[in-house]
Design brief:
It comes from Klebsiella pneumoniae. This protein is mainly beta. Helices cover 14% and strands 38% of the residues.
Length: 56
């Protein structure tokens, strides 16, 4: 596979080892995500309670 300049550019959004806890409830545990330029990404989960803290 040949890499293009787009494939080697840094991500426009980067999360590394993110966690979020509300009292005893763990919403996120060790989440890592890299979003490349000009790409659409969807996060799917049971509720928005785990997705929303990742982007605060």
């Amino acid at each position: 596979m040949k890499l293009t300049p787009q494939d080697t550019s840094p991500p426009v959004a980067l999360l590394e080892h993110v966690g979020q806890q509300f009292g005893a409830t763990i919403a996120l545990r060790d989440i890592s995500l890299a979003i490349p330029a000009r790409r659409m990404v969807g996060l799917i989960g049971r509720t928005a309670s785990a997705i929303e803290p990742a982007f605060r």
